[in-house]
Design goal:
The chain has a domain at about 20-80. The chain contains 6 helices and 2 strands, in the order αααββααα. It has helices at about 5-10, 20-80, 85, 115-125, 140-145, 175-180; strands at about 95, 100-105. Strands 1-2 form a two-stranded antiparallel sheet.
Length: about 180
């Protein structure tokens, strides 16, 4: 079992590599580019492996799904034909068998709206029950007109924080190969 000291050391973040010169900074950025490209290759291999495994599983499971549905349809047809006897004249909705059970369940009701405007108008005329009204601050509009929020309690537009960005140079494959040969 790992000691507590070892666990703490394992969780501590690595100290940043602080360059002392412009050349060292350039070298670190170049290494960051190499790391980014290697991670992209690893991700591409992972995506390819996942796609292959998914396709293989679907191909294997497809016939099983078809057989399952065929058997389920047969059991349903038999159960419907014998429903009165199986449910004791409708007293039960579940029938337990040695290898499982069959049951009839009520589905959930759903609201179907075919004419939104007409339904809303009628419901409003009946007192507005079953009509939802949402009122909220339009944040996109507030960003376009930040002066409107000045002096409004509970709302403000914050300045975005400054972000530090390191973008390693991405060379086209042919150009990167020619530079590698030149070194």
């Amino acid at each position: 079992m790992a000691r507590v000291k070892d666990k703490i050391a394992a969780k501590a973040p690595a100290m940043p590599a602080v360059p002392q010169t412009l050349d060292e900074a350039d070298g670190l950025i170049a290494r960051m580019g190499e790391i980014s490209r290697e991670r992209a290759r690893i991700q591409a291999r992972l995506d390819e492996n996942v796609a292959f495994a998914k396709a293989e599983a679907e191909a294997t499971a497809g016939p099983l799904d078809a057989e399952f549905e065929r058997l389920r349809g047969g059991v349903q047809a038999w159960a419907e034909a014998n429903r009165i006897a199986l449910t004791d004249g409708g007293k039960r909705k579940t029938v337990k068998l040695p290898s499982g059970e069959i049951a009839w369940r009520e589905g959930r009701p759903k609201v179907v709206v075919t004419d939104q405007a007409a339904a809303l108008a009628e419901l409003q005329a009946r007192g507005g029950l079953c009509v939802a009204t949402y009122v909220e601050i339009d944040k996109q509009a507030a960003l376009r007109c930040p002066e409107l929020l000045q002096g409004v309690p509970g709302a403000r537009v914050e300045a975005p924080p400054e972000q530090f960005v390191v973008k390693p140079l991405e060379l086209p494959l042919a150009q990167a190969a020619s530079q590698a040969v030149a070194r």
